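Team,

Forwarding the record for the chain on the shared tracking sheet. I've put the sequence and predicted structure together so nobody has to dig through attachments.
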Amino acid sequence: MKNDDKTAESGNDAATLEGRLKRLEEILGQLESDQVDLERALALFEEGVGLVRDAEKVLSRTELRVEELLASGRTEPFREDGEEEEEEEEEEEEEPA
């Protein structure tokens, strides 16, 4: 029962990428211990594979979204207030007249 409670708790966290990574670390810790029987190790491994696949999907969607934003030209590098004006003035001064 104790293991089931822990799995239920981590199921709530697994909705986020960070939660998935945290659970993967927990699984790795359990698998590295010598106190896990073969059946439990296989179940943990199976859960870990599922978490990795889910995390890869999240990362792929995120990467696609970033690429879409960059391609649309809707984003610009962050600049401090007034920094853009100063850079434009410097460029104008450097151009030969």
